[in-house]
Amino acid sequence: MPKVVTATYAGVCFGVKRAVDILDKALDTGREEGRPVLMFGPLIHNPRFIESYRDRGVEIVDRSGIRDHAVIVIRSHGITRDEEEYLKTFSDLRIIDTTCPFVQRIHRLVAERSRDGWAIVVLGDAAHAEVEGFVSRIDGPYFVHPPDLSDTAVTALDRFLRAHEKFFAVAQTTSQPDHFRQLIERMGSICRETRCAFEYQNTVCDATFQRQETARELAHAMDAMVVIGGRNSSNTAKLFAIVSAENPRSFWIEAPADLTAADRETLRGVEAIGLTAGASTPDDQITELAEFLEAL
Ligand code: SF4
Question: Which of 100, 130, 149 is the last residue of a domain?
């Protein structure tokens, strides 16, 4: 029977816990006021969690599904400025915002700096809702640098930096700290050459940093690693990238049932399995997985 060790920092972060607490209160409000509760896109990137709230009557809607006389809950990674304005067009919509305060801080930072004439560089995934929320609040030029730091991205960054005079950089909260450090070094060296002004705020969330570091250490020490979290979860994807680079016997699942017979056979054959979880994975899903692995 393999020994199972859970990473010191794994699973739900402050922002997700806060969002879930607020969502529970929104359900009470909906009941008390006789309003349907709508979730504006998935509150967190965890399909099993979202399904459990759907079972409790919450409707997951996009823009077209929003209607008056309802409670609308804004997800933890925020919405765009345009979506915010759209919500204000309803006359009787109760808006409950669970946007993580760390994400709200980045909204403020990029809005203020861009208004003051700084060109903004964001490290992150341009298609991720959190980054869409950042760029929607930028009044002026901006560049989204993808997390992979590929040659193409670096060339495009070079071009952007040579076209403006002062820059302010931030990162998507779930970025790998090493990627942000490399970006800052690159920007610093170009700005020394072109004499442009350059400032930044390291906005990688501590919760992300702690989860990534403890996952890396655990992956190094264990015979195999299992990461649990939504396939659509950006921070879980990054955790998996880190542990699989450290330990080739790594698996990413949303539930124990995702482990194939061959995966289970591999895990049964090792002495110690490390377990970690994305910041949107509830504790009960981690416990369920630990018990499953211990019983292999
Ligand atoms: S990972 Fe950080 S920024 Fe994102 S929801 Fe959690 S606490 Fe907030």
Answer: 100
109 and 89, same structural domain?
no
Check whether residue 22 and residue 95 sit in a common domain: yes
Number of other residues whose CB lies within 10 A of the CB of residue 157: 20
- Counting from 1 in the atom list of ligand 1, the atom nearest the Cα of 44 is 5
Examine the fold and report which residue of 78, 100, 122 is the final residue of a domain before the chain moves on. Answer: 100
Residue 174 alpha carbon, nearest atom of ligand 1: 1
Which tens digits make up the pLDDT trace of 89-117?
A: 999 999 999 999 999 999 999 999 999 99
Q: Give the per-residue pLDDT at 98.
A: 97
* The pTM of the whole model exceeds 0.85: yes
Q: Is 44 in the pocket of ligand 1 (CB under 6 A)?
A: no
Instruction: Report CA torsion sign: 51, 208, 41, 87.
Output: positive
Instruction: Tell me how far the alpha carbon of residue 22 lies from the centroid of ligand 1, in angstroms.
Output: 15
Determine the Cα–Cα distance for residues 213 and 64; give it in Å rounded to an integer: 40
Q: Is the CB of 14 under 6 A from ligand 1?
A: yes
Q: Same domain, yes or no, for 113 and 177? A: yes
- Number of separate domains in the chain: 3
